[in-house]
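Renewal narrative, Specific Aim 1. Our central claim is that a sequence can be written position by position from structural information alone. The example that follows is taken directly from our test logs and has not been curated for this report. It begins with the structure tokens describing the chain, in the order in which they were read.
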């Protein structure tokens, strides 16, 4: 069996269509990602995750964005409703590290119950006063020395629950003052400042199995978005020592220019291992699959290494975890 496709794809609705299943069987995406449009009720989600895996004939990873706050695909009654991460961190105070571990350990319980085994968290972006509101309260703090241990707690809580974490947005989205869903942010900080702060946060977490790039220009290093800029991907690999599987942020976001195929090819050529495509449009997914092709050997090695860390959940009592978190304050669980 050859390497899986160098792409992670979605589907259009709550049920996998015949055309989608046939396409996935041929394209063999490495994994899948779910959004609100795919989520109706518990039994339906379990059927969908099983159907996605059946379409490629293997236990493919299934991703979701379950940060809490604004970026939370599963909501009551399917999952707990969580405050925005930065709000929760501030409410927890000195207990933030334990509190975030508990929070994401509970999120892992919820995800695994639906057949979802990858969560697009933690965020190691460092918030500033100028950080765009689309990101600001999704961050964990305003200082590297605060963000790193909290991001580590998030990752550890997910891993303990049998869910792989995705470190984002490498090499740092916190200085961006524009929304990369809509336009291309440009960061003017010096290379020295970036290396000492934003990049350093990701270097401290470089052992995590999966990472996601930032659609942000770092003008001191290149005039292209990091996702499609070889010097930035090289810095992620060399200077930040990240050897996990590196996926693009959603390739259909308006920060990037060119056709979907051109963007996908540029990201792969720059050094991304996998293209993430989120909107479920079949024609676009076909273009992504054709442009990205199968995983290159190094990408396949990193993918295999990541999946070795997808282990059964450690024994835990969710009610006891929730009670402990509630006792720390800051969230209704």
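The sequence written for that structure reads:
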């Amino acid at each position: 069996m050859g390497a899986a496709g160098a792409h992670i794809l979605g589907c259009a609705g709550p049920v996998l269509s015949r055309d989608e299943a046939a396409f996935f069987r041929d394209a063999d995406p490495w994994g899948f990602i779910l959004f609100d449009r795919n989520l109706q009720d518990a039994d339906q989600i379990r059927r969908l995750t099983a159907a996605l895996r059946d379409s490629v004939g293997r236990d493919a990873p299934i991703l979701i964005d379950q940060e809490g706050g604004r970026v939370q695909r599963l909501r009551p009654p399917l999952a707990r409703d969580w405050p925005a991460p930065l709000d929760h961190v501030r409410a927890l105070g000195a207990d933030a590290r334990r509190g975030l571990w508990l929070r994401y350990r509970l999120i892992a319980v919820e995800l695994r119950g639906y057949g979802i085994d990858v969560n697009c968290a933690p965020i190691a972006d460092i918030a500033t006063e100028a950080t765009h509101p689309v990101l600001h309260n999704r961050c964990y703090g305003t200082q590297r020395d605060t963000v790193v241990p909290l991001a580590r707690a998030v990752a550890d809580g997910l891993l303990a629950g049998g869910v792989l974490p995705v470190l984002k947005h490498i090499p740092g989205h916190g200085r961006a003052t524009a929304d990369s869903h809509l336009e291309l942010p440009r960061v003017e900080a010096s290379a020295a400042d970036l290396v000492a702060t934003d990049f350093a946060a990701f270097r401290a977490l470089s052992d995590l199995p999966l990472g996601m790039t930032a659609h942000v220009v770092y003008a001191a290093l290149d005039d292209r978005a990091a996702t499609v800029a070889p010097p930035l991907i090289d810095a992620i690999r060399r200077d930040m020592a990240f050897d996990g599987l590196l996926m693009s942020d959603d390739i259909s976001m308006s920060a990037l220019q060119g056709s979907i195929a051109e963007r996908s090819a540029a990201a792969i050529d720059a050094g991304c291992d996998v293209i993430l495509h989120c909107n479920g449009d079949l024609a676009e997914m076909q273009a992504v699959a054709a442009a990205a092709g199968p995983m290159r050997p190094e990408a396949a090695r990193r993918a295999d290494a990541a999946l070795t860390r997808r282990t059964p959940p450690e024994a835990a009592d969710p009610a006891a975890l929730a009670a402990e978190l509630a006792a720390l304050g800051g969230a209704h669980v």
